[in-house]
Amino acid sequence: MGAVLVTGGAGYIGSHAVRALREAGVAVVVLDSLVSGHIEAVEGVTFVQAEIADTAVVRETIQRHGVTAVMHFAAFLSVGESVSAPARYYTNNVGQTLQLLDAAVQEEVAHFVFSSTAAVYGMPLDTPITEEHPTQPINAYGETKLAVERALPHYERAYGLRSVRLRYFNAAGAHPSGVIGEDHRPEIHLIPRALDATTGTGEPLEIFGADYPTDDGTCRRDYVHVSDLADAHLLALRKLESGSASATYNLGNGRAYSVKEVVASVARVTGGAVDHTFAPRRPGDPAILLASSERARDELGWTPRFEQLDDIVRTAWVWHRAHPDGYQSRP
Question: In which domain, by residue range, is 292 found?
Fold first, then answer.
């Protein structure tokens, strides 16, 4: 195994993948623009600050460090923003990724692990969602991820670049050490926003919709721990290196928790009440998103370590207490 180039490696999921790679003894090079990443998340790692579209820098980095595989996390991820600013998402998530792919094939990189999303499915026709579910995104974020997924088989046929596409459901939690965690600006994910509402460091948690056809009227989502996602990336890379064919996998825990259940979990873990209000539904929010990850379990040997919601929330709380202002909390 040569070195792995991790693009967007200073971000939330990317930094956890870097940690998993390092713990497995893999040489890692992080390339990140730091537009939304945090240099503190990848201390002690070879780091290059650059855009993935800077082909000269990417190629020189691959050459210098003997890179044989790329894990690609660098992307914009806000569904709402992708609806209001689709050009930004197509430019970054598609256009710049194609430039990254071009640099990789020019340098004869063999393997590519792609950070994708359950947003490629759109409104679920049935649940649990398998990889065979129709891909019908309802926002630019999902469309841009799907565009890259569709490009990858063409790159394999033409250039021999084999890939694994990993479709995450709701990433959550933080590394159990509490050293790295979730720090988005602004924060858009439910669990850290609920923690903020508990500690009084943020606005009251706004719950969108209490009239869904679910047990308690709120949306249900499949939360998968960020360290489990990181483990799946390492397993995907090993699969490719063993000579296995390119593939696509869902990554989820296989259980959907409601917003109210998340709020109750945060209250249990923190011992405090979650200040919250209710608001109308957001357009395009399905009632239930639930993954079937049987293929990843069977073919990758992936076994999530954090399957209980309280365990996921507890790791996020450890990070949050140590970093109430995110990475800016550090001395």
Answer: 190-222+254-326
